[in-house]
Amino acid sequence: MELTVGPNQFFWSADRWTEFYDDLASTPVNRVVLGELVCSKRLPFYQDRIPEAVSTLIEAGKEVALTSLALITLKRERKQTAELAEMGVEVEINDLTALPHLPKGAKLSVGPLVNVYNEGTLVWLASQGVRRICLTPELPLASVRTLAFAGADLGVEIEIWGHGRLPLAISGRCYHARLHKRTKDNCQFACEDDPDGLDVTTLEGKPFLAMNGVQTLSDTYATALHQIDTLSEAGVSALRLSPQSNGFIELCKLYRQVLDKDISGADAVETLTRMDDNVRLSDGFLTGNRGVDWSGEQAQPTLRI
Amino acid sequence: MSQSQALIPLFPPGLARVLRVIPLAPLSLSLTAYSRKIAKTHPSLFRRLGEFDHVKFVLDPVDLPFVICLAPNGGVPRVTVTRGKGDGVARISGPLAALIGLVHGAYDGDALFFSRDLVVEGDTGAALALRNAIDDAELDLAQEIAAISGPFSGPLLHLTAFIQRHTQVYLTRPEEAEAW
Amino acid sequence: MVMEIVCPAGTPAALRAAVKAGAHTVYCGFNDETNARNFPGLNFDRQEMREGIAFAHAHGSKVLIAINTFPRAGNEAIWHRAVADAESCHVDAVILADLGLLDYAARNHPGLRRHLSVQAAAANADVINFYARTFDVKRVVLPRVLSVQEIAAINAETEVETEVFVFGGLCVMAEGRCSLSSYATGLSPNMNGVCSPASHVEYREDKGVLDARLGGYTIHRVGQNEPAPYPTLCKGCFGASDKRGHLFEDPVSLNAEQLIPQLQKAGVTALKIEGRQRSRSYVTQVVRNFRTAVDALEAGRPMPEGMLARLSEGQAMTTGAYKKTWR
């Protein structure tokens, strides 16, 4: 099974961004998807650094793809999307708008924010030249299994959400701007201060969601660390690890160790919880009753109020 | 047709006091008979309840000194009127006129809920199923009563029409205006 | 051309009420997980659908069937059957969201008119034209993330008819791309056709203070005389940094009644009312109101003042994304 690093969902400074991808070059991952997924206003801050990051990663032997935006509405965003194809790198489609812009025969993949729930959609995407699909994190194991099976027949590799705060929703409205009583057009980049999203709690003070500009994520970090054997048996080709500001390199190594059977999944989860005791885990979409559920022992959430 | 939902008439307190002492067993019996009659003429109402056709509901007219327990029983309903809190998976409370107006499609359930004229407790899904099933049945309680009242049906309908005019309580199904 | 009023019906009685109140078109769904309002006690079995469509056609109204959830892997046959049954019920169009289902319908039921559901969240002219080219989609229901100017720009670049929401519950997130509900309750709009389902809602009233919980999370609390909210996730009350409030959206509903003239200028074909889960009383009042409005517009009379606030969640209204400052 391969490891893919998904596009960074958060807004980091250009220097931090560069440093992150430089570090990734030496980690045991197979594939890196980069570029701006969430908000087109962030892109100009690091756009000129993308070509170099791509070269660095390719030289380090990684496969590289560029993501489209998750929600494309403005003229500027449509233009950005059309230009993606001209970079000469594989494009990961996260809004279907990107598809008609890509040249016939180009290498295509589909990211977790395009709705692929069933074989019919998979077959149709395959007919459009798609060779890899990272499924929406919402899917239960039974669906993953069915789709991986269907994908194998069509030469489409199936990747699933391996680790990270779950992308739950995308909106036209910017919640960070709203929180600071600003409009989206005059957001003054309020999301910049929250490199892993801003924690959102319920009225009882329970951690629940995370705000990231126009995106809403889960509070919990989904992990498939202890389910790798099951997923591999289900025919899943790759796990997606979603960038986070702390300990990401260690995280990549931990996943690789489990894939290489150097340590057990259970031990790896143990290590994971020790890495940051303020991180709450979940695996409910895959195997539980609801997304937030966690099949392992759950430490009481630490509240920061 | 329904206009403002602002003013929901309350049951006259004097009359409500009288109801405190009347025996409830006969009322339960006749309401059960009445509901079985409705079950016969509106079988789809119970079909719509789906998984909730065997649970118990409590309807609590807050301006009356008793509650109405409704057990749909898969189409053989039983109604029990009691002075206690009643027993059921879901409780729907509101002025009698609101509950009756809801049955007659004069009010929108969500709107009454938003304005807190209606309070739902317990299994919200069950309450919703009941609301939707009743809304689709297009019941007219006065017509149903008249239909089982034989020779008294004519005068009874006149009486309900009279009360409706003078109390603004929707005792019958309002005409849906014809726009075509 | 009078703007088309597209009205919801969760039950046969609501369908008849909508037709009588003057709806040009009514949309509804089968009583299973194939539609995005799969609520207890709602929707149509095959027989009711056939009769409802016949009733509407006899009175000059059209009917659309929403088959707008995303078929479950391994069980697509349920959705395929829904499309086939919709055609045999003589429906005027089906409203679809899933790529695979659109492809299936285009290949197997080419004569059945296809609309693109809001659940597909097609938010720009490029992707709308792509859907039209690929699946011969005749109309697109636009996601509620666009301003009136953006809608006008889309219409200038496409031949596909556009339908926009003008009243009712308001999704704050791009539709069809939101897993908040399944994260908290296990039931999702995309897979199960429900959002923040009633089965996971719990109300607790204590000394006039009403708490609303969803999946065990308290996301609403109101005092004695405040309007009661339904705990829809995106309209819940939350805390973040030192602030507390409705961080995503207030408990409001959409009312774009006064924007109808602008929407007409923007080239919009049809005005959609949300609320298949609402009563026939709601349907009658809202349809009559909007029908009066479009008839007034057509006759060159001023827009009538709205009177629908009471029907709204939180008893408050917004024009949503149609005004750019909402974002």
UniProtKB/TrEMBL annotation, chain A:
Pfam families with a match to the protein in the record: Peptidase_U32
Residues the entry annotates as binding [4Fe-4S] cluster: 39, 174, 187, 191
Recorded superkingdom: Bacteria
Keywords from the named record: 4Fe-4S, Iron, Iron-sulfur, Metal-binding, Ubiquinone biosynthesis
Cofactors named for this entry: [4Fe-4S] cluster
Pathway: Cofactor biosynthesis; ubiquinone biosynthesis
InterPro entries hit by this protein: Peptidase_U32, RNA/ubiquinone_mod_enzymes, UbiV
Family: Belongs to the peptidase U32 family. UbiV subfamily.
Subunit and interaction comment: Forms a heterodimer with UbiU.
Protein's job: Required for O(2)-independent ubiquinone (coenzyme Q) biosynthesis. Together with UbiU, is essential for the C6-hydroxylation reaction in the oxygen-independent ubiquinone biosynthesis pathway.
Protein name (record): Ubiquinone biosynthesis protein UbiV
Native source species: Parasedimentitalea maritima
UniProtKB/TrEMBL annotation, chain B:
Lineage: Bacteria, Pseudomonadati, Pseudomonadota, Alphaproteobacteria, Rhodobacterales
Pfam families per the UniProt record, alphabetical: SCP2
Residue stretches making up the SCP2 domain: 54-134
Name of the protein: Sterol-binding protein
